[in-house]
């Protein structure tokens, strides 16, 4: 998307919808602050059209054999590969993330999502078992899984394509149709995906895109033609979505916020642990739900870890996202930067010592309008401080010392969130023990962000409801019917 007046359109029923004087919002480059396109905001009528198109397409797509659905997903994966550079460029322009990150993570994972769920749905079998009944009778019970129906897919701005395909691939694989609402800040790859899926042979109306802000999302999730909602975003927005669907008792899958902890024991190789911690704190400028914002370090190695992690932060190279040497990007918007800077002020008021960062970098006139912020580390805070309790969603972490395993388990679990944790130790018995004690959906030992797409993904508490991934996705995107036949 290059022209300032170029429109990013909605996709409904296999057609792109021209704005025709409709309302629009600016699509802003987070790195420069410049407007790069206009996003056509879907009104209630257009949302209704999209849901209607998805319902009409459902009759055909839900009856398409699994093998043929899997073939469409595999063709979509190949088509993304063929248009790889185009997807990378769109993702970088929308998010401001370094091109290396989009090239190595976001777009490859999107391709992998389609291939993985094509394989998973192809291999899925149904359950059948015999039941003994009174008076010597027997019955055969078997379970048939049918598509959930029309699914509302709402995805955030931090990993737009990765998270979109993580939901769309299994939803389509299971025979559902979808209406997607990407973030108004990062709309481009959802539209590119509409082109790819059409080229792959997906029936018109099985994949629809409606753009807009929270009001568009509320219209979509509140529509009577929606059979389920999958949402990734903030805990506050997830609560609103739940309220919207409650009266119609629709199933929901929520992956929400996190205030994730890392635990570093004193038997680690400090260099190896800090290399992993640097990724978990600063990847995507800290704008990943799985990023670490609380680092608990055993006292014997606290100073060494703090110093080494601060050195890693100083070595990050901000710059133009399309520059191959850039290793860290801006925040998604200047509005989000104001929120993060507010937490910087709260931390300093609470008595934090700033090891590194704490402000806004000067990157010259070309990038002066962007949402840049310095990677930041604090010491001197504790679990009572807001900067340690509330999700910030930026390149920031508080480092807190601890003395015993029991103490740190209590500190790490002292949160309303429960998404992820990482444990760094050379004692694997302790690693397993502590990982199982974490009140989280995912716990890593001596690594971070390493996932098999067949494993369940999700969180506890304010971090969400339900799981997706592998069989968990198949279960959410389908409804089981048990059939019992007396023999």
Give a description of the structure.
Belongs to the aldehyde dehydrogenase family. The active site is at residue 255. This is 2-hydroxymuconic semialdehyde dehydrogenase. Keywords: NAD, Oxidoreductase. InterPro entries: Ald_DH/histidinol_DH (IPR016161), Ald_DH_C (IPR016163), Ald_DH_CS_CYS (IPR016160), Ald_DH_CS_GLU (IPR029510), Ald_DH_N (IPR016162), Aldehyde_DH_dom (IPR015590), OHmuconic_semiald_DH (IPR017628). This protein has 487 residues and is an alpha/beta fold. It folds into 2 domains: 7-256 and 463-486, 3-Layer(aba) Sandwich (Aldehyde Dehydrogenase, Chain A, domain 1), CATH 3.40.605; 260-445, Aldehyde Dehydrogenase, Chain A, domain 2 (3-Layer(aba) Sandwich). The protein is built from 15 helices and 23 strands. The chain has helices spanning 44-61, 66-82, 84-95, 99-123, 160-173, 188-199, 214-221, 235-246, 270-282, 302-315, 334-349, 386-389, 405-413, 428-437, 471-476; strands at 7-8, 10-12, 15-17, 24-28, 35-40, 128-132, 138-147, 150-154, 177-181, 207-209, 228-232, 252-255, 260-264, 292-298, 353-356, 376-379, 396-402, 417-418, 420-424, 442-445, 460-461, 464-465, 478-486. Strand 19 (420-424), helix 14 (428-437) and strand 20 form a beta-alpha-beta unit. Helix 2 runs antiparallel to helix 4 (99-123). The longest helix is centred in the first third of the chain and has 25 residues, at 99-123. The mean pLDDT is 95.
